[in-house]
Amino acid sequence: MTSPQEPEIAGAHPADRVPRRGYVVLLAGLLSNFSVGILYTWSNIRDSLEGYEEWAVSQLTIPFSIGGLTFALLLIVAGALQDRYGPRPVMIAGTIMVGGGTILSGLVTRTPGLFFVSFGVIVGAGLAFVYACPRPAAMKWFDPSRKGMINGLVVTGFGLGALWLGPTQLLLLNTFGYSLERTLVILGLLILAIGLPCAAAMVDPPAGYVPPAPARARKQSAGETHSHAPSVGLRTAMGTPQAWMLLAIYALFCSAGAMVIGSVGSIMSTQTVGGLDGALGPSLAVLLPLAVPILAITNAMGRTTGGIGSDYLGRRGTYVVMHVLLLVNMFLLQFWTTPSLILAGALVAGACYGAALAVTPSIVADYFGLKAYGANYGFVFFGWGISLLLGPQIGSSVLAATGSYVGAYYAAIGLLSVSLLLVLLLRQPRFSAEQVLDGSVPAAVTAPVAIRSREPAPVPAA
Length: 462
Hints:
Blueprint: H1 20-35, H2 42-49, H3 62-85, H4 87-107, H5 112-131, H6 134-141, H7 147-160, H8 162-175, H9 180-200, H10 215-219, H11 234-238, H12 241-262, H13 264-271, H14 281-313, H15 315-333, H16 339-368, H17 373-402, H18 406-425, H19 443-453
Helix pairs in contact: 1-6, 1-7, 1-9, 3-4, 3-5, 3-17, 4-5, 4-9, 6-7, 7-14, 7-16, 8-9, 12-16, 12-17, 12-18, 13-14, 13-16, 14-15, 14-16, 15-16, 15-18, 16-17, 17-18
């Protein structure tokens, strides 16, 4: 059951135009994700904690790991709450957890155990609650043919969040000379100041709202990217091979991108001939500090491009292009020994990784509908959590054993090959009327499934 909506929204817009509130929800979704990217600035926090005698070197990555794992594990819970209570209360709770957890972390920096809880558990849980809401809410306001664009724009905000939080951290720590404690408190207050108004603006459309179809969608024949599938619950979705295949694709494909993104500095230093002391040392010294912010921008651009591209090429077609591009890139990376070429390869990996974070949520809506979208996507998203453990671990283990990343590239090629095979086997699932949650399913929604399956569409129960 969703939160009540403002009555003036319904019927207050031309039939061929999305109401202004829809664009407000889309912008609020982008900005809310933009405001909570504190997890991706961990390297700055880690550098400050490294000088604290209470912290052992082995503890410095624990808060980040706990935060990422909590985020992935709780997204399915946050999604189910969003499906039941609507996006606004869930997002408000999540923003308070991220901002409040960041402030609390600033008060317990000298106690690693408490910091694990405040930054890892509380902030990680808040990220799940914020991340779960904007995409399904925004998709309900716009025509189904724009699912990829909506997902791409919203998750672009999450990818760019570190670009304001990271420099702000460095400004407070290095330029103003603030302590880590004071810096975290200020950042927490900024997160609350930006995130809470965005959360308050997040609403579902009123009952009976039908989004207007753009001219492009009206001229094209119905397909899986141009319709909302009949909605099914989490248990029904998990009973399909498609849900498990999407989870596996997420895990295998994103592992290759996560390995490169998480180790870009090490890869550049290891593969550049002579390293910093060689003839290419000056070029390497210039590009190393720029690699992470440039990679963040490319990652974000890949999300927008992948989402919009999938609306035109179809989800599977876009998946295939992404896989082929990343396979070729991972093979060529082993031969590149100059900083500029290595960085270019890392940027391709980052763009493909970002595109997966826009295409996958869109195909979940294509296959399982929107009524239980939060829980269904939360289940598939667990594959992304697996990729954060699998990809970087492969890279670090191969480097430790061989002194290079060549073996890791071939391992990534193996994972990508399996993922591509799963993509080629994907097919739209079909459900009986008893499994559908929408009650009365409009013919426009069920027709694409019937056309693709060449069977009559199931008649909904009265």
